[in-house]
Structure formats: structure tokens, C-alpha cells
Amino acid sequence: xxxxxxxxxxxxxxxxxxxxxxxxxxxxxxxxxxxxxxxxxxxxxxxxxxxxxxxxxxxxxxxxxxxxxxxxxxxxxxxxxxxxxxxxxxxxxxxxxxxxxxxxxxxxxxxxxxxxxxxx
Length: 120
Hints:
alpha/beta; Ribosomal Protein S5, domain 2; five-stranded mixed beta sheet
């Protein structure tokens, strides 16, 4: 994918993402996605559970690291005229290192890219 990912801010798109989206669980990450019929850049959302990670400082650190890794990811795009909207949730309870986040997200996006390429 050549263009930069945008932050997902639209509440209607976020709610439809969780209602209609498909998910991939790869502990400690959960990826929820759907492909939208719209010519726009791809959007993403990052979430860390307050239930699992109690301190806001730790949640913000994890979110910042997730965003840094996601922006460097190479995402398979089945059709350039469509838009991929996805949410990456950290569902673990321990504070991960940056390398653990990078390794886990690489594996999660490998599964995601494989699933997108087979569903063409």
C-alpha cells in the first residue's frame, strides 16, 4: 500500500466496523476489519482495554507503539478502488516491549494479508 493510513474518527463507520466487520484473533492482538466501497485512503483505529491495562500512562504508551508499527506495515490491497477500515485492539494484560508489539503485529498482519489475498 502506497498511501498513508488515516485515523478513523467517524462514529458511524466505527459502529459499522464492529457490527459488520470480520475479526482475526492473534493473542495479544485482535484485528477487526471490513472493506468499504469508497474511494478514500485506508483508516485504522487503535484500542487498549482499560479493564486489562489499568494505568492510563501504560495504555497511552501501548497505543503510541501500536500506531508507530501500523504506519510502517505493508497491507495487501485486493482492490485499489475499495477502502480497508480496521481496528487493532491490544487484549493482553501485561505491558509489552516494542519488539513484542512489532513481532505480534507482523504476524497478525501476515494472517490478515493472507486472508485478503485468498478472498479476492
